[in-house]
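Dear H.,

Thanks for agreeing to be a second pair of eyes. The structure we're designing against is below in token form, covering all 395 positions.
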């Protein structure tokens, strides 16, 4: 028995210190709901949980990206569906224009309705946007990251070879089913060559008796040029004609405007020249080679509008192919969303097992430490009384 050293008190104090530390940790875990509140609680577990948390955050953002992609494709599909509806209406009107009982005024009315549908297609192509970005101008292409580290992407490509889904991209520029027949017509002939720039051959094209602008272009082999007298008008009452350009291989136009434009033959003389439409702002489109008697192109017949169906069918196919591609892309987004959502849940579960408190276990520990604390306090009180036993020996 020692007076200056109370071993029992020191042992009881050390035990009580450990019990108090365990009780404090239990209170901390119960109050925060976390098993790891600082690095010293579980250094290795903290490192693993941080990596899991980082991966989960990345996946959650990838889910947001995929949702944005899905929303974009919904806008695209809705607009394309409307374009398809207008194209089908145009197709129906094109078939209706081939009804033999319709006259010029009837066809003009049908064409007016066709132009309204075309204008609406052009409006959709020009005004459809997502987050301020035009979708159908032929330049929209975006990548959406669908992985936690951004290594995997889904591309939404609406470029369509840079043409978009406007009238030009759908091949409907200048489309008409009117009596004057603005849809493309193609006539073939023989090309000729000659040493003289004049009188190498001639192409005859009959213009109809309606006012308007007839624009043609002539392309030649390199080294040829044009002069004004290369263009002659035969039997042209009230017609103004002039060259737009006199440079070889560039657009050469014949503007014919009059309030009383009547039937006449346009004769173009030039060596090895082709004649075709430069800009379909007039009443017809025609292609032929020099020195061929093109004949009398009669645009008054509604039967010529049969080729309009080919144009509309081609446009419908373009839209259908684009919708198919976007539908497949949408399915990829759906699959990615399902996979990423499942992975995110599993990662969160794994992280929770490492970092979060098991309340049943922690509550049991808290009860145990509370009992031990009370017991140690009682033992410490008794240990502190042990030095007094020395007095009995002295007595």
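And this is the sequence the design step returned. I haven't edited it by hand at all.
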């Amino acid at each position: 028995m020692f007076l200056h050293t109370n071993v029992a008190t020191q042992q009881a104090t050390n035990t009580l210190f450990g019990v108090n530390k365990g009780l404090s940790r239990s209170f901390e875990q119960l109050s925060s709901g976390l098993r790891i509140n600082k690095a010293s609680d579980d250094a290795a577990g903290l490192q693993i949980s941080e990596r899991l948390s980082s991966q989960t955050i990345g996946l959650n953002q990838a889910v947001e990206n995929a949702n944005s992609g899905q929303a974009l494709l919904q806008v695209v599909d809705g607009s394309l569906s409307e374009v398809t509806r207008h194209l089908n209406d145009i197709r129906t009107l094109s078939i209706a224009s081939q009804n033999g009982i319709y006259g010029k005024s009837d066809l003009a009315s049908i064409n007016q309705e066709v132009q309204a549908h075309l204008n609406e297609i052009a409006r959709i192509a020009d005004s459809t946007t997502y987050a301020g970005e035009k979708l159908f101008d032929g330049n929209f292409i975006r990548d959406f990251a669908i992985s936690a580290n951004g290594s995997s992407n889904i591309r939404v490509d609406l470029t369509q070879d840079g043409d978009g889904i406007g009238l030009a991209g759908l091949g409907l520029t200048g489309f008409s089913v009117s009596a004057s027949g603005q849809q493309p017509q193609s006539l073939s002939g023989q090309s000729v060559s000659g040493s003289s720039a004049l009188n190498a051959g001639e192409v005859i094209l009959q213009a109809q008796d309606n006012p308007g602008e007839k624009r043609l272009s002539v392309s030649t082999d390199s080294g040829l040029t044009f002069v004004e007298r290369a263009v002659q008008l035969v039997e042209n009452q009230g017609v103004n004609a002039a060259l737009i350009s006199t440079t070889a291989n560039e657009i050469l136009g014949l503007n014919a405007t009059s309030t009383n434009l009547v039937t006449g033959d346009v004769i173009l003389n030039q060596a090895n020249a082709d004649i075709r439409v430069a800009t379909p702002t007039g009443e017809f489109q025609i292609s032929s080679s020099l020195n061929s008697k093109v004949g009398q192109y009669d645009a008054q017949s509604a039967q010529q509008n049969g080729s309009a169906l080919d144009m509309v069918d081609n446009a419908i196919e373009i839209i259908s192919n684009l919708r198919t591609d976007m539908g497949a892309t949408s399915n990829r987004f759906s699959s990615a969303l399902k996979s990423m959502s499942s992975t995110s849940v599993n990662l969160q579960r794994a992280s929770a097992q490492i970092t979060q408190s098991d309340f049943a276990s922690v509550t049991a520990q808290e009860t145990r430490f509370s009992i031990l604390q009370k017991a140690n306090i009682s033992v410490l009180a008794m240990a502190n009384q042990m030095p007094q036993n020395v007095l009995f020996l002295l007595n």
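Two observations from my side: Confidence is low (pLDDT under 50) at residues 179-305. The first strand starts at residue 129 and ends at 130.

Warmly,
E.
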